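Work Package 3 (structural annotation) set out to generate three-dimensional models for the target panel prioritized at the project kickoff. During this period the team completed the workflow that converts sequence records into discrete structure tokens, so that structures can be stored uniformly alongside our sequence database. As a representative example, we reproduce one entry of 82 residues exactly as it appears in the project archive.
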Amino acid sequence: MNSREIFVDVLDISETGCKLRASSGFAEVGDRVTMKVGGVHAPVGRIAWVDDRRAGVTFEGEIHSAVLDHLCSANDAIHKKR
């Protein structure tokens, strides 16, 4: 099994999954992913769909709403720094 670290933009996130954007070909349907947003690990997930530079991830578990709020705040802070 090959693994690699890829930096992506989180476009949308919910309790059950998220939408990512990165370079073309960064993922394939069925790929297993782990994510870290703002220093916090999200649940393990799988790529559910890919459309050029965007992909959808379905988490294998749900994110607690308090953790989701923290991830959203961290993601907003990261985007404001750019």
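The chain has one domain: 9-81.
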